[in-house]
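Interim report, section 4.2 (structural modelling).
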Amino acid sequence: MTPVSSKKTPFTFDSIEPESGLKAALGKSRADIIAEISASNLRGRGGAGFPTGTKWNLAAAAKVPPGGRKFVVCNADEGEPGTFKDRVILTEYADLVFEGMTIAGLAIGAADGILYLRGEYLYLRPHLEGVLARRRAANLLGKNVAGRDGFDFDIRIQMGSGAYVCGEETALIESLEGNRGEPRNRPPFPVDTGFDGQPTVVNNVETLAWVACILARSGQWFKSAGTAKSAGFKLFSVSGDCTAPGVYEFPLGVTVQELLDKVGGSGAKAVQIGGASGHCIPASEFSRRIAFEDIATGGSIIVFGPGRDMLTVAKNFMEFFVEESCGQCTPCRAGNARLLEGIEMLERGECSMAYLRELLGLCETMQVASKCGLGQSSPNAFMSILKHFRDEIMGRTAVAH
Amino acid sequence: MLVGQQQRLSDEIRGLVERYGRQRNALIPILQELHAAHASISDFAMQVVADELGIHPSEVYGVVTFYQFLRRESQGRFVFRLCRTISCDLAGKARVARQLENDLGIGFGQTSADGRFSLEWASCLGMCDQGPALLVNEKVYTRVTPEQVHQIIEECKATFGAHARQVAHA
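Predicted structure of the assembly:
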């Protein structure tokens, strides 16, 4: 009943000398720090994959209004179904994350860091506050950090309150500001108009940990792993029908089959990559690569064994989106509910092909017309399951449950 | 609510405002503290918070009703949240759910008549490799089996009172 460590492979993080990334950063100019990150080709590990160096450059160049200040926000609102790598990082490598935030503060010229921690992880807070207190005592946070005159940086923790959509960066900022977590229109982007209208960098927990590693080693070192378009290593949260679920590190570009062999899921029928908002990959496509140029993901891998009913899977995901849609825009609010109804019709064996085509048309509308990533990606699982497993979904004669 | 109770609650809210400030971004931390202390946020509390922060009470209402962990209706001292995401589903959450209903004597979305227990679904709890996962207030239980449900409830009953809701403060 008590949680155990989810870590299943050694992580590159283990080989990094503590604070060596920050030390290296303190010896560089702001431009050189960002140049090192850009040279590494690091892309956001939360799932969207935006180049981190580009984001930092924009925030560094952004003008601060009189009396204003820049912010570094760590997105620890890990809520994508099947994702738990950030919990492991925050539990076992919190120093590395805070080190990465401090480097970000130095690079963009921010004095304030905020860790936005999901409400479900409240039990991690005492540990994280302890790490922050230790860093303050060691002058790794606070005034003149690590003896660098004029570089002040501190980090506070703000809790989420149970809303998946707050993992979207503008919804997260709305929540930080004391509002409903409803995503904003973009542009303007947070690097320009973020928390309290100030230039703000929002990075995923894992991204910031890699930042510290890259400064400790080099951009070239990071780039030497992975593929040409997807540099470096990635943590994967593996769950479902496999013998050794947990968090694994692989270089990007690993094939689905290689990953399955490693986690004890070789006989799988399908794999959901990217969580509820990701794609369902059938066994015939297990030679595909997990990388930004093929199957992009924040790292959620859910394995489905031979006996699993894929319509049940689609229904579970759609129930999730009906619950978690913020309700602000119509395609997402109404669309997800219609898709769930459609799945229930399929379950009862009452869905005509004509209506199914209408539902697929609705999926496309949601993808193009929804305001944020939630509604744009929520039809993915339904569409990919329908595409690959139509033979087991149409013309059902009995209710599955 | 009695006048004395209202006064106490108002004082408590003013104390929180002292700590977190009057700016809008203090709203959610204040509401989180209130909810942790009272297991709900009453209309009266929302009005006082709005007055203190100088915003319309409908703004506070909008925030309270948006977030899963902030509630107007009173919740039990122990809130059981069973993860309903697919990984915990594959790991057998349906039987745990049934046994929770049986042993607590309430359905999902309900609070027991004695005000001790609430039962709810949670979206992914981030324990997907160790499901089924159950969050009881701030404590997480993993690989929960139907026969363990009774023991978890007994643990809660044993701690009811002084340690019922320990909340980490900044």
